[in-house]
From TrEMBL:
PANTHER family: GLYCOSYLTRANSFERASE CSBB-RELATED (PTHR48090:SF8), UNDECAPRENYL-PHOSPHATE 4-DEOXY-4-FORMAMIDO-L-ARABINOSE TRANSFERASE-RELATED (PTHR48090)
TM annotation in the entry: 241-262, 274-299
Domain of life: Bacteria
EC number: 2.4.-.-
Keyword Glycosyltransferase on entry: yes
Pfam families linked to this entry: Glycos_transf_2
Keywords: Glycosyltransferase, Membrane, Transferase, Transmembrane, Transmembrane helix
GO molecular function annotation: glycosyltransferase activity
Listed name of the protein: Glycosyltransferase family 2 protein
Domain Glycosyltransferase 2-like: 18-179
Length: 329
């Protein structure tokens, strides 16, 4: 019997690596980060481009970028306002021209030392090399519990397997990037989309560094919003759980109805029962409101999709020192 071997992937002889860096108020360390990134890329990439996506920063990001704008291999895309990290990443991915695209945060948390290893795995034939946070012990109990619940819901309800603790830090082959760009949805929960497109992927564990300066832009509220976007984009499990819960309550109510009918017929009932009624009414109004809320959450997403607004708007795009007129996607 002939054992089928994997089809070898052909990679370009002189590949160009694109690095997409979403930056929102990172001016304190952006310039130093770009220098370090350039030094790292020069050690292993034949050619590269660094795409800094300014996601509507309100700090000195423009000034920090100024000395870099005329440098070769630097592209600067300024969005017209803060659209959020997912949209900034989408913008960078849309404009990247490399054979492989690396997504990386601007705050030094994603180790630069890992990039050569990522590139090597890509040359070995992997299409997506994604960083997985190896140690989350420094995070709060509440955050870890929330993350655990989120992944549990996704694993049970979503037809795809979203790797636990994988973030946006990754290298993607051009084929993966093209596939991502074909996905039409507005609700871009990137972690889900990376998993949805598939391709030959491998995890690379890493321990994130400390943020160079400033604080994370994702507080508990932001993370909950992101988790909700992920759940509604990838699974209808909450709707199904609620249907099952509704069916369960209906059965209990029916049994109880039989019980009181029987009681009235055979024993006689002289208790008015208003307290049971009042409690039941309050309970079921609450349950109905929650159901409407869950339905509304999905409906709201449909509304967002049908409006077909652009994911982001570009104020200006400076490529190797040349300003290109503002375009929209
Ligand atoms: N970021 C962005 N837009 C936002 C929030 C964050 O482009 O609205 C960028 C930010 O500048 C950084 C990356 O996304 O490069 C990750 O953000 P952060 O470090 O705040 O998040 P965390 O590391 O806590 O996940
Ligand atoms: Mg960070």
């Amino acid at each position: 019997m002939v054992v089928p071997t994997a089809i070898p992937k052909s990679r370009p002889v002189r590949p160009c690596i694109s690095c997409v860096i979403p930056a929102y108020n990172e001016s304190a360390h952006l310039s130093a980060f770009l220098r370090d990134l350039q030094l790292t890329l020069r050690t292993f990439a034949a050619s590269y481009e660094i795409i800094v996506v300014n996601d509507g920063s309100t700090d000195q990001t423009e000034q920090a970028m100024a000395p870099h704008l005329s440098e070769e291999g630097i592209r600067y895309i300024a969005l017209s306002r803060n659209f959020g990290k997912e949209a900034a990443l989408s913008a960078g991915i849309d404009y990247a021209r490399g054979d492989a695209v690396i997504l990386m945060d601007a705050d030094y948390q994603h180790p630069l030392e890992l990039l050569p290893e990522m590139a090597r795995l890509w040359l070995d034939g992997y299409d997506m090399i994604y960083g997985v946070i190896a140690d989350r012990s420094d995070e709060s109990k509440l955050k870890r519990w929330g993350t655990g619940a989120f992944y549990h819901l996704m694993e049970t309800g979503a037809p795809i397997n979203i790797p636990r603790n994988a973030g946006d830090f990754r290298l993607m082959d051009r084929s993966v990037v093209d596939a991502l760009r074909k996905l039409p949805e507005r609700n871009r929960f990137m972690k889900g989309l990376y998993a949805w497109v598939g391709f030959k992927s491998i995890a690379l564990p890493f321990v994130p560094h400390e943020r160079k300066s400033g604080v994370s832009h994702f507080n508990m509220r932001g993370l909950s919003r992101l988790a909700l976007a992920g759940v509604t984009a990838f699974t209808t499990l909450p709707l199904r759980i609620w249907s099952a819960f509704g069916a369960f309550i209906s059965i209990i109510a029916l049994l109880y109805a039989f019980w009181i009918i029987g009681e009235s017929l055979f024993i006689g009932n002289d208790v008015p029962g208003w307290s049971t009624l009042a409690a039941g009414l309050m309970l079921f109004s609450g349950i109905q409101l929650i159901s409407i809320g869950i339905l509304g959450e999905y409906m709201g997403r449909i509304y967002e999709e049908v409006k077909r607004r652009p994911l982001y708007l570009i104020e200006h795009d400076i490529d190797n020192g040349t300003i290109t007129p503002a375009t929209t996607m």
